Amino acid sequence: MKQGTPTAGAVIANQNGSQMSYCNKCEKCGETSRSSNTVSIPSKGNKYTNNFRCMKCGNQQRVEIIGY
Fold first, then answer.
1. pTM of the prediction?
2. Residue 42: what are its φ and ψ, rounded to 5°?
């Protein structure tokens, strides 16, 4: 079963089969978004990446989730 592990900017909310949901988390101020994003779990050794701007402090943050 595929699994995703965040390395930066995310907290996993749910993983189910080949899909996962995550919430953005700012590495600067620690704010975690209330809404979640649903994406396909990356294959083993691959990365899912995205960017977001923190609503609290305005920090531009990168999301990285590695597939295992």
1. 0.90
2. -65, 150
Could you give the maximum distance between any two Cα atoms of the chain, in Å? 37
* pLDDT one-digit tens code per residue, 10-27: 999 999 999 999 999 999
Q: Per residue in 30-67, pLDDT tens? A: 999 999 999 999 999 999 999 999 999 999 999 999 99
Q: Are 7 and 66 in contact (CB under 8 A)?
A: yes
3-state percent helix, strand, coil for the chain, nearest multiple of 5: 0, 60, 40
Residues 59 and 65: their CA atoms lie apart, in Å, by 19
Amino acid occupying residue 42:
P
Contact 15, 41 (CB under 8 A): yes
